[in-house]
Structure formats: structure tokens, C-alpha cells
Amino acid sequence: xxxxxxxxxxGMAPDPSIIRVHDxxxxxxxxxHWTPGVQIYKSMDLANWELxxxxxxxxxxxxxGTNTPAGIWAPHLSYDPSTGRYWLAYSHMLNMAGREFxxxxxxxxxxxxxxxxxxxxxxxxxxxxxxxxxxEDGKQYVSILEWETREGYQAPGHIVIAExxxxxxxxxxxxxxxxxxxxxxxxxxxxxxxxxxxxxxxxIAAGGTGYAHGVEIGRSRNVFGxxxxxxxGEPIITSSPRHLFSLGDPDAGHFEMFNPNxxxxxxxHGSLVHAHTGEWYIAHxxxxxxxxxxxxxxxxxxxxxxxHWTEDGWLEMKDGTNVAKMEVEGMAGVTxxxxxxxxxxxxxxxxxxxxxxxxxxxNQSRDWTNTVERPGHLRIYGGNSFFSQIHxxxxxxxxxxxxxxxQTKVExxxxxxxxxxxxxxxxxxxxxxxxxxxxxxxxxxTVLKVLQAKLGQRIExxxxxxxxxxxxAELKLIYTSGIANILYRxxxxxxxNAIVSDLDVAYLSDEGVNGEPGEIGGFTGLFNFIGSVDxxxxxxFADFEYYSVKNR
Length: 552
Hints:
By secondary structure, the chain is mainly β. The protein has no helices and 40 strands. The protein has strands at 3-5, 17-21, 24-29, 34-35, 37-43, 50-56, 71-80, 85-95, 102-110, 121-124, 127-134, 140-147, 157-165, 170-179, 189-196, 199-206, 214-220, 228-229, 237-238, 265-274, 280-287, 301-309, 315-317, 327-329, 344-346, 359-360, 369-370, 378-381, 393-398, 403-412, 419-428, 431-440, 445-454, 457-460, 466-467, 472-480, 483-489, 497-504, 527-534, 541-551. Strands 25, 27, 28, 30, 36, 37, 38 and 40 form an eight-stranded antiparallel sheet that branches. Strands 29, 31, 32, 33, 34, 35 and 39 form a seven-stranded antiparallel sheet that branches. Strands 15, 16, 17, 18 and 19 form a five-stranded antiparallel sheet that branches. A hairpin with a 7-residue loop joins strand 17 (214-220) and strand 18 (228-229). The chain is globular, with a radius of gyration of 24 Å.
């Protein structure tokens, strides 16, 4: 028997949607304000997942100005065997102010999971978290959360289902309200339909995407219901199994539901797959707090649980409990491949840079970042301040461990203090740490400095200034459980020297980026980055010789 270790996709990989095509498995995850949007992972053994593509990479969406945590939410993958097409449904959350959520939902299709994908087909703006179900009779249905804004009505709303003509993007008939949840946890969302032995099964996320999160299920003989709840009256997967009554409560955090007996928290938002071995699994999101805290810098990661069907036709975890585990049984007869490394190393010797690089708010394009103008280097032209949600020039990768080293070598020749280039840690436009080269008028040359953003406040380390006469520096950041040590050297013969020691960066987490205690301020996670700023003449650029993240 093989054992699968969770998380199967560490670092920011929330809202997983899993499918199987023949003996190959795919997962799509949310990307929020990061581009390219909707990452696609591939596996042959359910344990090792390789990033192979992103769907929204050709300007299909404009994420400039996106506030945390809006953007691209909860993609849903499906496969229609009658046409051989992959389908992706997703929501573009445009506004969350005043709880007047404005979200446009779309569907796209492709004959190959790596594209090309069709132009987005508009579905609805009724709510968010759309999913497509392809029925045996050829009909297609969309399920989604209908967002509730009226005073006195149960939030967040109803799960609704409608038949759709996906080719035309037209609803057939009307939306049918089917449930507001199958337990008392409330906050029903992310509805997905499955069919087995004549029953339609509706699986939903519940409890809010915090410490009360869970996976619920109901069933019906009719796709439009009524749906019978699971007889346990509780989630079929969760990290916090104790009972919770929270109907209508808008609190997504539920910090009181933290389970001190589990290294895994926030298990919920599941997606079901029938393995080619005949077994059943649910991929779901989870988090791992920093030890002794409720902070989750790695964001919401992807895990998997083994399931089985009871004699009376209900789905439950294979071990008979509903508490998500860090280790689960692998598929029978399937040998696990050697574990994939989650390190990132790019020496920029190819015409394309690593697929792992993402950018906040703006699309990646050769006019501002490329490896062709100076082969063996990634050139980044300076963009807006990193406080900007419009045109920051950032190339970033997801943090996947509590212990790692980030390192790069940069050459930069600024002629104004508003031109900078370097590396650091980034959560969103209001929360980051940046060690960088810039121009100093008092020094009459290039210097190394550190700048921090915390809850939107600009913090300059004014007493930390290192002359860099040649405009070339190697930079290193050592991250250890929420503490950062930043080092530099000006040539390879030098010892590494500290520029900032023991900096508390635990706030770069879902819980730390909101100024209100006890609230979740973001849905993404910590990123490592290289980047450049030019608030002068927009003519400066930096050349990065390599980029390295090594987990320890």
C-alpha cells in the first residue's frame, strides 16, 4: 500500500477542481489577482502534481486595480466525453465593497488541457463559484451560489442550478433554488454536481473558508432537487469536527474552530474524482498555520482524502471519520513516482522563463520582462511602485515551505532615487518586503536599501544603506517560520553580510494582511519575487542573472 502525503500541492493552490481523463488527473486552482490566471496541474498517481499550464494567459481578463482578495475565483474543470472537450468555469470577482459582490462568471473550452482555449463565454452574474455538469442525456447544467444582499435574508444565499446551452451561453428555463446548505455551518458555496446509481449528488463548501470550513453533500433523484442532506448532519470532510451553528453568519474566519489536535486546518471546498482503479478521492483546500499561531503564510493549499460509498449510497471518508488527514492511502496497484521538488531554479538561459513565475495585477509580456534582450538574464523594465495595483513589474513564485532560501544576482544602474530593482517577499500591494538597489544622491551612486509595506504603511529602513559601486549585487533572504534574514555580497569571493536580521514577516499571511484582529484579509498566500520600479522616466531596467528558491 502506498501513502500520499498532504498537501499534494503546497503553497497557494486554493479551491482545487479535480478531473480524470483516462488514467491522467488534472487539478485547476484559483489565482485571484495573480496572472497568468487559473493554474493547471497534472498527475499520474494523485501524489505528485506538476504545473503544466495556465488558462488565462492571453489577456482574457484585466486584473488591474483588483483589491485583495478579489480576482479569479474557484475555477471548475470538467470533461465532456461526448465531444472530447475540456471545460473550465470560473468567476471574475470585480467588487466586494459593501458586501455587494459583483462577479461575472464565464466558461471556456479546449480540446487539449494545455490549450488553446476558446474565448470566454459569459454565463451569469448571479453570484460566484460556477460549476458545469454534463449529464448522460447530453444536457448540461450550471450550479452556482446566488449571492444574497437583502437585509433579513440568510447570507450568503442559495445554491442554484439551471440548464444551460453552453455553446450560446444561454440559460434554458430558469434558476432553481435548491439549498442553503446541508448542515448548520452555513456559508454554502462552491456547488458541484455528480451522478451515481440514479442519484444526483450535490457537493458544496460550507462554514466559510476559515477554521470552520468543510465539505457537505446531499442527494436527489432530480437534478433540481429536493436534495436530501447527508444523514450525519455534519460535513463529510473538515479539520474541525465539533458541531457549529452558524447559519447566516458572515464570519469566514471562525477562529474559535481551530483544532489544536490537527496540523491541518481549514479543510474544505472539495472536488470528487473516480480513479481509474475504481476508488474515489476528494481534493480539497487546507492550511497549515505557523507553529503557535493562527497565521497561514502559505495560504490555502491543496490536499486529498480517500473516500468510499456506504451500502446505502452515501459518500464518506475511507477511515469512517470526517477529519481530514495529512497522510492517506494511495491508489491500489499504482506505484508513486519519486517526489517532485518544489524548489525553483531559473538561470534564464532559455527564451522562456520558468512556468512558475506569476505577476500581480498585470499580464506578463515581453515588452517589460524577457530573456532575449540579454541572453542568460531576465530583464525587467521598471514599473509602478509596489503599492500599485496597476503596473507593478514583479516576477514571483509561490512560497511552498516554512523554511527556505531565496537568492538572486542583479545588475542595475539607476540615475534617480525613484528607480529601484531587487527582490523580496510579497503578499499584495499593501504588504511586502523589498531589498533593492537604487540611486543615492548623497552617495553619488548606487546603494542597497530595504523597504517594507505593512498594512499599507510605508516603512523605510533609513539607517541601512550599503554602497554598491559596480551596480551588481547578490541578494539572499532566509525565511524561517515567519522570520526573515536578508543578506548580500558584492562579489562571489565575499562572505555573505547581513543587511536586516530577524525581521518579523509573519503578517504576510491570509490572517495578517487585514488590520482588524480576528479577520481573514486575503485568500492567496506568500510569494517570493524579483522586480523593478521606475517612477522617474520609465526608461530603466534591471538584469537578473538567476533566481533560486531552495526549501530547507
